[in-house]
Amino acid sequence: MKITLGGRAGSGKSFIAKALAEKYHLKHYSTGDMMREIAMGMGYTIEAFSSVTPEETDRELDGKTEKIGKTEDNFIFDSRLAFHFIPDAIKVFLDVSYEEGARRIFLKPRESEAKVETEEELARRNKERWETDRKRYIKIYNIDLDKRENYDAYIDTTKLTREEVLREVERIIPTL
User: Fold this and answer.
1) What is the CATH number of the domain that holds 95?
2) How many separate domains does the chain show?
3) pLDDT category, 57, cuts 50, 70, 90?
4) Which tens digit of pLDDT belongs to each residue from 114-158?
5) Are 32 and 39 in contact (CB under 8 A)?
6) What SS3 class is residue 10?
7) pLDDT by residue (tens digit) across 61-73?
8) Distances (CA, A) of 163 to 61, 105, 159
9) 71: domain range?
10) Are the C-beta atoms of residues 17 and 28 closer than 8 Å to each other?
11) Contact residues for 79 (Cβ-Cβ < 8 A; gap 6+)
């Protein structure tokens, strides 16, 4: 079983990926975790790094993703682009409004993310980061993250609890 889980900041990707990995004994990969590690090692927040990410870094991480997809099984990959590099996976996209995503993140900020004073500022930054990444991926790979046809399932998590999202994703994936 190969599952890719993409989506916007604050949509619940990390929680859902970890919960599925634990419940079904899947290996868990996260491009976001890999990027945060690189960014922090270079002294950047993830937002700042996103705007200056060298194309070589994108290609290196994407190459690792593709290799995992070709050589492994029984994993969930929390990544914006894994759906493209692992074409035989079940591809799920979790959406959320920028405002709700910011509210969720504001309640549990990560050390790797820039500090913000308000949820509104965070919503604006998340939208800017999404657009920066989206444009970069269009330029590098001609892939538009916003096209729903890229995914097998699309779930708007804005008004759902984590548990409701988890149940919805479990309904989508075949019994493991």
Assistant:
1) 3.40.50.300
2) 1
3) confident
4) 677 788 999 999 999 899 889 988 998 999 999 999 999 999 999
5) no
6) coil
7) 888 899 999 999 9
8) 30, 17, 12
9) 2-172
10) yes
11) 4, 5, 6, 29, 30, 31, 32, 65
